[in-house]
Write a structure and sequence with these properties.
This protein has about 140 residues and is mainly α. Helix content is about 35%, strand content about 5%. A hairpin with a 4-residue loop joins strand 1 and strand 2. This is Tubulin polymerization-promoting protein.
Length: about 140
C-alpha cells in the first residue's frame, strides 16, 4: 500500500499517479472526478475517521488555496528568437510570405500563382480583343 502524506498545501505520495490513473481515463479530469480522488486520498490519510469526516478534513485543508505552479518556465525574449520571429527582418523569398502587418499570406505567399488565362506570358492586353472586334450598336432608322 503506498504511503500518502497530505500537508497544508500539497499532496505528495509514492502512489499518487496510480490513484489518479484509477480515477481518470483521459488527459483531463472533471470536478466530480477530482472530488472522488480527494475522497479516496482522505480515506487513506485519515484512516481513524469515517469517510465523510476525512473528506471534510481534506476540504478544510485545501479551502481557499490555489495550485502551486512550480518549475514552470517563463517566456524569455532572446535575440535569437526575436530575429527568427520578426517578419520585418526576413529577406529574399521569405519576405514575400508575409504582408505588412506580419501575418502570413498562406498559399499565395508560398506558391507562385500562374496565369492560366490562355495568353502568352508577355501579352499585356488580355481581355481587349472582344472590345476591338465588337461592332458598335446600330442606331435605328
Amino acid at each position: 500500500m503506498p504511503q500518502y502524506i497530505l500537508t497544508n498545501l500539497s499532496a505528495a505520495c509514492l502512489g499518487f499517479i496510480s490513484l489518479f490513473s484509477r480515477i481518470k481515463s483521459a488527459r483531463t479530469i472533471t470536478y466530480s472526478q477530482f472530488r472522488e480522488a480527494l475522497a479516496e486520498l482522505a480515506r487513506k490519510r485519515f484512516k481513524e475517521k469515517s469517510s465523510e469526516d476525512a473528506a471534510e478534513e481534506v476540504y478544510k485543508m485545501i479551502e481557499g488555496k490555489s495550485p502551486v505552479i512550480a518549475g514552470v518556465t517563463r517566456a524569455v525574449a532572446s535575440p535569437t528568437v526575436s530575429r527568427l520571429t520578426d517578419t520585418s527582418k526576413f529577406t529574399g523569398s521569405h519576405k514575400e510570405r508575409f504582408d505588412e502587418t506580419g501575418r502570413g499570406k498562406g498559399k499565395a505567399g508560398r506558391v507562385e500563382q500562374l496565369d492560366t488565362s490562355g495568353y502568352v506570358s508577355g501579352y499585356k492586353h488580355a481581355g481587349s480583343y472582344e472590345k476591338k472586334t465588337q461592332k458598335p450598336p446600330q442606331k435605328p432608322l
